[in-house]
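Worked problem 6 (solution included).
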Amino acid sequence: QVQLVESGGGLVQAGGSLRLSCAASGGTFSIRSMGWYRQAPGNERELVATVSSHGSTNYADSVKGRFTISRDNAKNTVYLQMNSLTPEDTAVYYCNTVTATWSWGQGTQVTVSS
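Solution. The predicted structure is:
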């Protein structure tokens, strides 16, 4: 069973930056397209960024130009660099495959103050 462990969240002021990490234990990480998701209180979980096994990326319009997803297959880790954060980015952030194949991790809380 693959375990996903997200880290790097915290409290930041609007305009600030954070870098999230997600480490996957076991599984076929290197051949999977991976994604970062987020869920704000009262909202559905949404996919905000994806990276293919070869490094091609896609972003939701709400984060395009501010967030950058990347991966290190040698470390079974996917990253999310978040810049120019706004209070609307406040959410719990999760990683998973783009088809949510694996069990969800605990997520990492990102809180952006105005």
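Discussion: The two ends are 40 Å apart (CA to CA).
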